[in-house]
Amino acid sequence: MPRGSKQWKIIYKTRTCSERINNRILNDYRIHSLRIHGKKRYSFMTMIAGINIHLDARLKVSGFSILNLLE
User: Which among 26, 34, 29, 33 is positioned nearest to 55, based on CA atoms?
Assistant: First the structure.
């Protein structure tokens, strides 16, 4: 597929989206620097990070702010 085509742009947009999520999981939630061992524990922490990212996105779309509740 040629670079810059419609199909290439769709695939590239998906790739960059997944890279942003991976970066957020590894760096913002510091999954790579946790001292956990075992596939189950690592998977659990990754799942919790994924849930938090999803909730952050939902709150951003809804416009919710804790500051509005305090006023």
Answer: 29
pTM across the whole model: 0.64
Q: How many residues are recorded in the chain? A: 71
Domain boundaries, the chain: 6-70
Note the pLDDT of residue 23.
87
Rounded to an integer, what distance in angstroms lies between the CA atom of residue 33 and that of residue 70?
35
Specify whether the CB–CB gap between 1 and 8 falls below 8 A.
yes
The residues of the chain scoring below 50 in pLDDT are none
Q: Which amino acid is at 22?
A: N
The DSSP line for 38-60 is SHHHHHHHHHHHHHHHHHHHHHH
From residue 22, alpha-carbon distances to 5, 32, 34, 39, 62 in Å are 26, 11, 15, 17, 24
